[in-house]
Amino acid sequence: MSTDQDLVTDGLLTHPYAVYDRLRDTAPVHRVTGPDGSPTWLVTRYDDVREALANPLLSLDKRHALPGGYKGFALPPALDANLLNMDPPDHTRIRRLVGRAFTTRRVEQLRAPIRRTADHLLDALGAHGGTDLIAAYAAPLPITVICDLLGVPDGHRRDFRAWTDVLVAPDPARPQAAKEAVVAMLGFFTQLLADKRKEPADDLLSDLIAVRDESGSTGNDRAGSDRLSEDELMSLAFLILFAGYENTVQLIGTAVLALLQHPDQLAALRADPTRLPAAVEEFVRYDGPALLAIRRFPLEDVTISDVTVPAGETVLLSLAAANRDPRRFPDADRFDLGRDATGHLALGHGIHYCLGAPLARLETEIALAALLERLPDLKLDGDPGDLRWRPSLRARGLLALPVTY
Fold first, then answer.
1. d(CA 192, CA 196)
2. What is the CA radius of gyration of the chain?
3. Which pTM was predicted?
């Protein structure tokens, strides 16, 4: 065990993988100062992270946290009753209710609509020129897909993207911005649910409302085995929209950057686009969108790599460090589309494995396929060292990706 370290000043915001390399080698479990200044335990080795992700003694329920510990986002109850804060049996019940919408078979039915959206965005770019690929392509594609799936009207999509950006990477100069974003989102979802109740449509949110209302319960009572409370309904809508947008936009951006920085790999993928589904696994392993899994709280004292973590303290599992662990992936810092990247932890492991993983994979595959076909001369515009990354310990993503084509 190391002495306390500050996750922000220790370099994770600017050079995360170099810091994680050092942490894995010096001690796999560190007591550190977390994102909000509270004490936290950071776990960095693959085997330890994988085991901890599936350990039922590590709870996601904030009620098991010690007072004053790091708990993540501060959300009102109407947005906080989501899968990222739940253990079984509530987690099992809600995941079962919504899981049918995200099976590989159901998601595959979205292939044609996603490709149409990608082509529409590329049509708007024109045959040649320059652009910020995040703003023009990587961001609007997933927000369009997830909003269409849920049934969110076009006029609110830009607002939701702005609120999400504020929550993931709070601006220290604007301490009230995150609270304002939460208030705005709460009002947005309250009105959206009311509108859907008046005029149901063929979308996921209308289906979830039907599950909620047909159960016959009222208020915010604890839901039964096949029911949703009102808070759970709103929180689920928030989580699907938030995670469905945020993770995919970052993954598309870092995948394109990796290809542009490795022209041999890009040429190989252009020569054989059928390799794209397997390539997505290397993209997400090499530079995935989530640096850390959602925080966890031991229900009792637990031992991780010979270090005892007391009950109720906060544990952060580094997915990024685990995926670059050379004990699991030889030459792990090398980007290699020929690698067998299966077994990576970028999308989680165990009962909390990412519900939207099939959709994120499909969107990334289609986004890259369209780029390879439509923009054969795509190049990075400028020095890679000048690229700006989102200042966040939660999410790994580019603020902009300037390209020419």
1. 6
2. 21
3. 0.91
